[in-house]
Amino acid sequence: MTPPDRRDQPPITADEATTLTAFLRYQRQTLEWKCAGLTPQQLATRAVPTSEVTLLGLVRHLAAVETGWLVGFGGLPYGMWPDVVRDRDEQFRVDPATVTADDVESAWVTWRAVGETVGSVARQLPLDTTDRPWGRDDEFSLRWILLHLVEEYARHNGHADLLREAVDGVTGE
């Protein structure tokens, strides 16, 4: 398994939005890499008996996290966002006995569409735009949210690495 090549990322420039979205894109590529080549059943396997977390659950969860932070942000239309699994427990509740290739494909299609939408938000709004994300009391800047999403992916990619190793022994960077 070959990790995503960091050299494919744009160089760090004065364009902070490009830099932030490039790091976010790299973290997304890492998640995709951690899940590559697995069957639907492997993606839905609870590799740690005490945890509901699965690789497929992480894909669904991260799509919901990105959406949750940015849906309606900066006055952009709600309708531009793909429909995601909103219930946190349901995001992770995946049964390897009943999961199908269509379930997996649907999760990836939604996840990719969310990533495209986040990119659209970052292209449309200045990084200093502040707003109250849906369901939150405090205001956050787009810059803060993008940094938070990079951190969220980095943390969950660590989980994905451990899950992948438990599923089939493959380890990565």
TrEMBL record:
<dbReference type="InterPro" id="IPR034660">
    <property type="entry name" value="DinB/YfiT-like"/>
</dbReference>
<dbReference type="InterPro" id="IPR007061">
    <property type="entry name" value="MST-like"/>
</dbReference>
<protein>
    <recommendedName>
        <fullName>DinB superfamily protein</fullName>
    </recommendedName>
</protein>
<dbReference type="Pfam" id="PF04978">
    <property type="entry name" value="MST"/>
</dbReference>
